[in-house]
Amino acid sequence: MMASGVIFLDKPLGWTSRRAVNEVMRVFSVPGKKRIKAGHAGTLDPLATGMLPILLGDATRFAELGLHAEKRYSVTFDLSYQTDTLDCEGEACKRFDTQPNKQQLMDVLDLFQGEIQQVPPIYSAIRVDGKRSHAMAREGKAVELAARTVCIHALDLLAFEYPLVSLDVRCSKGTYIRSLARDIGKKLGVGGCVTALRRTSTGGWPASMMVAAECLEHDKEQAVLPLRQWLRDFPTCELTKEDAWRFLNGQRIQLECGQQGSVAVMCDECLLGTAELKQGMRRMVLHPLRILPSSQQHFASKGG
Length: 304
Hints:
By secondary structure, this protein is of the alpha+beta class. The chain has 3 domains: 5-67 and 207-229, Pseudouridine synthase (2-Layer Sandwich), CATH 3.30.2350.10; 71-202, Pseudouridine synthase, CATH 3.30.2350; 234-301, Archaeosine Trna-guanine Transglycosylase, Chain: A, domain 4 (Roll). It is built from 9 helices and 18 strands. It has helices at 17-28, 64-67, 102-110, 133-138, 177-188, 213-216, 227-230, 241-248, 293-301; strands spanning 5-11, 38-40, 48-56, 71-78, 81-83, 92-95, 114-118, 127-128, 131-132, 148-161, 164-171, 193-202, 211-212, 236-238, 253-255, 261-267, 270-279, 284-291. Strands 1, 2, 3, 4, 7, 10, 11, 12 and 13 form a 9-stranded mixed beta sheet that branches. A hairpin with a 2-residue loop joins strand 10 (148-161) and strand 11. The longest helix has 12 residues, at 17-28.
């Protein structure tokens, strides 16, 4: 059976997220057989390192758990200049001589906690009229992106020695750390060019879960978090083999008890998929949401 689960890859500096996925696919694919399906749960720029959840097999159906999750980053940015890309890989477009002090910085950081309005960088993967914003910017076209609401849950100063500022950031999905650095710099009347960025957590998963790319080759099976653990916030709904077969065929199941909401559906330690438990006329009713093809194949091979 093909691998299924999640790898918390420690993405190396310089890799695109797509390259990271391709490398994992290469490691887990078997020569002569169909290539394993894989995808990531939250893009990291080439400049960024750190936690990139890569989903394998059936787990790719649950990428939104990473995409929508809270993120945590450590970032360092330079107040003395700014570039067109808002990071040190771009072309410098403005330099600043003003040197704010620590108290001024702390006062400004207070303004960026909680819900804020943020305009994404034009060098980003956001689509504008069907085309990537970064592609339009590189063609010299004018790009205007609308502000969006994001939430900065925590913003802690790690170090400040002009011109460099280092922060620990906990934020909602959709937050651009390059934009955050830019906007903090603007409030101070200076630049805010990101020089180092590392994602340390996705959805509360600790940094200790990360696996270095070079370790995958040697111990790839141990690097995979089982899909059921990725679905850790889903309560378990256990089915009999008879009901499991019905569930895998897309049928609704009446149950004697249960609490309303999303659940992970199991049978004899086998994850079948996810479902929504709803109150019916007399009983709770299990409504299939996502059924795992691997479980369908498993039960079919055993004749139900």
